[in-house]
Design goal:
Chain lengths: 279, 320
């Protein structure tokens, strides 16, 4: 394709690309920028495009807020359980879907897709009652339990694509060497799924980290809020909205996710190489 | 380049995938069922059971009294007729459909355009665009919501300031959240901004798998860019496009968090409700669980109707 594009066309494309990139990066820049300027600059009618009136004050406010730390612990706890459980369950399931042809297979695959369509609002009330009857409201366990079920279908969907990419022959030769079928899954296929596991794990993490509505329904006590609930409640705490604090809090909330994405990007590069080898 | 690989997922659904274990013996092997058990079990407990209860509730008179133990009476299709006879429901439905279709269509158009653009960029620009996509994609919904509210703030928002600076004096101090039309404009911008990166990465990953020599050969045969796009690019990326379109429609129709939180700014909840927030209001705030459940079921039906054509087409495209 590079052959036919003239320099003029190329620079036109580059300019469009730059504008596109700037538009998409702007809100992220604006978030970080506004978390770093003083209240006076924030209050001013003229926006500050650069953090010239620089201050860490908003971060200090947030980091001294015990509610932030409790929300952070809550969010991490939930996300951790969800990632481990969802990956494990989805690994088993995607092995079944990828390696076997059995009765009901198609039904499962369709269900995985259809489950995505069920409006979460359609289940709130009964989910709330279920968790309530198990006395798990306001707990890490109760919320994680529901999140695992919600993220397993998508995780299966993603992971299956990666499992399909690992040749069965590898498992078969391991079985000839005396490995059991399940043993071959774990010893041969599992390690080869590295990047797939990381990528789908990140998705499960992200889903749990971001989720707002179920958390809103299940968590009512002050010390069991997750980060999304905390940040949304932040504006209500003070009389005037503390935009600097909200921006700092939102940045802190985004940070782990951004770090994860940067990590996964490198892992995926390795994954691509592995994919190329598989041919 | 490396960034795109976060989306290596389409690989599995492209036609050129390595062969799965196709000719397995047809003997009843319990292993796949055992492997599926944990996943199926947790989904059944988390969603299957609540959904069943909700379906039951849709046919019952179920409000706060029943919540506190009074037995619920079955009322047949009463809840459904009440929903369908309520003009607020139809308005909400229309709003939701319009919002969903506009967002999904624009997201797909911008996403496909962005992915094709990526193939034409010089390396530094391409890296920049991919980094921007990655950052936007990684932003938690709640963080994005906060910054968008700030960007469109009526007092110190950068959008009002810019528009006023461009000579639109009326826009100084304009409250975007007080008018349904501008409310949904902001919501749509936010939703599209959040969803485009996924489409870009998925489409780009599959576009880069197109055989270069095929494009070159077609150029020699005199095919122009548009023709190439229609006859080579589209068929190759069709499975990915289908999947993303399905997901976008599903996600945009059940949009909740964004609307729910933006509504706190305007005080015009009634005029800005979409199906999700409507169900929440009728059910959790209004206490009418029966009607809320019926509405939720109707919502599920509409999603199935909207996507069914794509889903069957997607399943037909080779063995999934």
């Amino acid at each position: 394709m590079a052959l036919k594009s003239s320099p003029v066309r190329r620079s036109a494309a580059n300019i469009t690309g730059l504008v596109f990139g700037l538009l998409w990066i702007f809100p992220v820049y604006w978030l970080v920028n506004n978390s770093l300027v003083t209240d006076e600059a924030l209050q001013s009618r003229t926006p500050s495009f650069l953090p010239l009136d620089f201050t860490w004050a908003h971060y200090e406010t947030v980091l001294h807020d015990s509610r932030f730390w409790s929300a952070l612990r809550m969010s991490f706890g939930v996300a951790l359980i969800v990632v481990v459980a969802a990956l494990l369950f989805a690994f088993f399931a995607s092995m079944a879907l990828s390696r076997f042809r059995f009765k009901g297979r198609k039904l499962i695959i369709i269900s995985v897709l259809v489950i995505q369509m069920i409006p979460a609002e359609a289940m709130f009330i009964s989910q709330y009652k279920m968790i309530d009857s198990w006395h798990l409201l306001n707990s890490v366990l109760g919320l994680s339990l529901l999140y695992v079920g919600a993220s397993v279908p998508f995780t299966i969907w993603m992971l299956k694509g990666f499992v399909d990419g690992v040749p069965v022959e590898l498992e078969e030769s391991a079985m000839i060497d005396g490995c059991s079928r399940v043993g071959a899954f774990f010893r041969v296929t599992f390690p080869l799924l590295g990047s797939g596991l990381v990528a789908s794990g990140i998705f499960a993490f992200l889903a749990a980290w971001n989720e707002y509505t179920l958390a809103l329904v299940l968590l009512s006590s002050d010390n069991s809020k997750t980060l999304p609930l905390w940040i949304q409640g932040f504006s209500g705490q003070n009389q005037a909205t503390d935009w600097g604090g909200i921006m700092a809090g939102s940045t802190l909330m985004a940070l782990p996710v951004i770090i994860l994405f940067v990590i996964v990007q490198k892992k995926m590069a390795q994954g691509l190489v592995a994919g190329a080898v598989k041919g | 380049m490396t960034v795109t690989s976060t989306r290596a997922k389409p690989e599995g659904i492209l036609p050129d995938r390595t062969k799965p274990a196709a000719p397995r013996k047809r003997r009843r092997n319990p292993l796949p069922y055992i492997l599926l058990l944990p996943a199926v079990l947790i989904v059944l407990v988390d969603m299957g059971y609540p959904l069943l209860r909700q379906i039951t509730m849709a046919f019952q008179h179920f409000s706060l009294e029943q919540q506190f133990g009074k037995p619920a009476d079955f009322v047949g299709l009463d809840n459904f007729t009440r929903v369908l006879g309520d003009s607020a429901f139809w308005l909400t439905l229309g709003r939701s459909l319009a919002f969903c279709l506009v967002c999904a269509a624009l997201t797909m158009a911008i996403g496909i355009g962005g992915a094709l653009l990526l193939t034409k960029l010089s390396r530094p620009v391409s890296v920049f665009v991919q980094a921007a996509m990655l950052l936007a994609w990684a932003m938690p919904v709640l963080s994005s919501l906060q910054v968008f509210q700030w960007i469109f703030d009526s007092r110190s928002g950068v959008v009002d300031w810019t528009l006023a600076g461009l000579g639109m004096q009326g826009m100084a101090g304009y409250n975007w959240f007080s008018n349904p039309l501008t409310f949904f404009a902001v919501a749509a911008i936010l939703v599209i901004w959040m969803s485009v990166p996924l489409v870009v990465f998925m489409v780009y990953a599959s576009v880069t798998q197109i055989d270069e020599s095929m494009l070159e050969a077609s150029t020699l045969d005199g095919a122009n860019g548009w023709k190439q796009f229609r006859e080579i690019t589209v068929p190759t990326i069709a499975p990915v496009l289908l999947l993303v379109t399905i997901l976008e429609i599903i996600w945009d129709l059940r949009v909740f968090t964004q609307i729910f939180i933006l509504q706190k700014n305007g005080g015009i909840t009634e005029q800005t409700n979409v199906l999700g927030t409507y169900v929440y209001q009728v059910g959790l705030s209004g206490g009418d669980y029966g009607v809320a459940s019926a509405t939720a079921l109707i919502m599920l039906l509409i999603t199935l109707l909207l996507t069914w054509r794509y889903v069957t087409q997607f399943l037909k495209q080779g063995e999934v």
